[in-house]
Structure formats: C-alpha cells, structure tokens
Amino acid sequence: MELIYRTVVIGIGKRAMEFIDEGMFVIFKDDAPEELKEFCIIHKENNLLKDIKENDLLKIGEDKFRIIGVGSVVNENLKRLGHITFRFDGEKETLGGSINLEKKDIPKITINKIIEIWR
C-alpha cells in the first residue's frame, strides 16, 4: 500500500465532538482562525503526498474506512489550509470540501491519534 496523507491530532476543539455525534468531523491545521478551532480536530503535520481519490482507505489509529466520495476542493483545501470534513454517511455525493466514507461509527479521537490515507 502507498501512503497518500498523514497527520497527527494535537488538539480537539471543545465543540468538535458535537460534529462526531452527527457522523462527521472537521480537521484544520494548527494555524486555523481562533473562532474555528473550537469546532475542529486540530493537527500540525499536513503531509499530502498525492491527491486523495475514491476507494482510498482512511485510517484513524487502527480503524479503517473506505473513501466513497471526494469533494471537488478537498485536495486543494488540504494542501493550503489543512482543512476538510470527513463524513461517515455512506453517500457517494459529496460537498466540495468533504470526504465521504462508508457508514460506520467514528472511533474515539484523542491527542496524538494518527490519521492517514492509503491507496
């Protein structure tokens, strides 16, 4: 398998878990505007090695999820801002800045949790 993206969680906004209850979470690099950080999973590294595509595999720690849809600006937003939304809804149709994944429960996200995408 080939590594496409890797980052490490360094912070969890106080309202980020509200999104997880809705089947999604938002990541933003640590230089995010302060008013957005409270809603996001914050990460420091932003290693996008290749564009993310459908059928790639998201890993959150040891948990794996198949990517079924990639929004039109996901790769650009990830490169520039380290900012995208992961939606665990099983829907192929995506919003511009979202990655849609198979419908599964989201694992517990903690500080130092590794998030990767593999092909």
TrEMBL record:
GO CC entries: cytoplasm
Post-translational modification Phosphohistidine, affected residues: H43
Taxonomic superkingdom: Bacteria
Pfam families in UniProt: PTSIIA_gutA
PROSITE patterns linked: PTS_EIIA_TYPE_5
Record-annotated membrane-spanning stretches: none
Any single GO BP term: phosphoenolpyruvate-dependent sugar phosphotransferase system
GO molecular function: kinase activity; protein-N(PI)-phosphohistidine-sugar phosphotransferase activity
Name of this chain's protein: PTS system, glucitol/sorbitol-specific IIA component
